[in-house]
Amino acid sequence: MIQATRRNLLRGGLAAALPLPALAQAEPWPSRPVRIVVPYAPGGQGDITGRLLADQLTQRLGKSFFVENRAGANGVIGTDIVAKARPDGLTIGVVVASHVLQRALMPNLPYDPVADFVPVTMPARTQMVMVCTPGLPVRSVAEFVAHAKARPGQLAYKSAGAGSNSHLFGAWFCEATGIEMTHVPYRGSGDSMNHLVSGLVHLGFDTLPAVQDLIVNGQLRLLAAGGPDRSPQFPDVPTVAEAGVAGFAANSWSMVLAPKDTPAAIIDRMNAEMVAVLRLPALVERFTRMGAVPMANSPAEALALLRAEEAQYAALIARLGIVLG
């Protein structure tokens, strides 16, 4: 009896001495409900991806996965929540490609977009498209450019926020074509749609999943695919580059991130479960129908992309002279 008690005390002492990540690694994942922080407003690419994952993982694992939208500052507010969360796999985030722009745009960013996170997987790569309000008398990129040049400063392009990838692509398009437009930032892609449909703003670069139904219903006019390839959903519509803007290519992606120091065992388990649901025929068909290409890659592959695209877009931002506070 005395020996058994001593053994129990020793076990308790060893457990108390273990650091938090080691304890988290010993727990089965998910041990409790999982919060998926989407640092953008509802309706955009990150939100759609987060909700698809939450639904499927809840069904697959029998634990609750729920989306929490924490929009603001082009994703910085919600992403910072993920960066500072306990590294136990119970708070994760879904970001989009604008995540890799932040260090170049905001010198006082409260986290490192690469070093403070562990990528789990990139669910899908998503093409961006160039859309305009249907009230404009234009049906091609060339006609839009001519219309804008005749009205310098009178047209506006919208974005999902200052420093978002839609802001970057809009500024890049203006520079490449020599037109002058006003940038109007919103809190997210979904927040801007009514104004684009009604004509309060005139142009936008959006992910195809966010605008496809509006295009089909005639509420927005598709002028071009962002590139580098045409959209399978609209194969007769050229890319911006094919329409005469050489070198222009706009696409996006979604990525699941966990806080740094999340144990490798939890990252591997999350990756395995997410890859499994992302490869379900129903989800593959859903992403494809929306204009996204399912990826479901490894943590190492996701990290390599994160690093490469941060370097690529930092050079573009420097050339365009875009700086935020």
From TrEMBL:
Signal peptide: 1-24
Cited CDD domains: PBP2_Bug27
Keyword Transport: no
Keywords, in A-Z order: Signal
Keyword Lipoprotein: no
Pfam families named in the record: TctC
PANTHER family noted in UniProt: BLR1237 PROTEIN, TRICARBOXYLATE-BINDING PROTEIN
Assigned protein family: Belongs to the UPF0065 (bug) family.
Protein name in UniProt: Tripartite tricarboxylate transporter substrate binding protein
Species: Falsiroseomonas oleicola
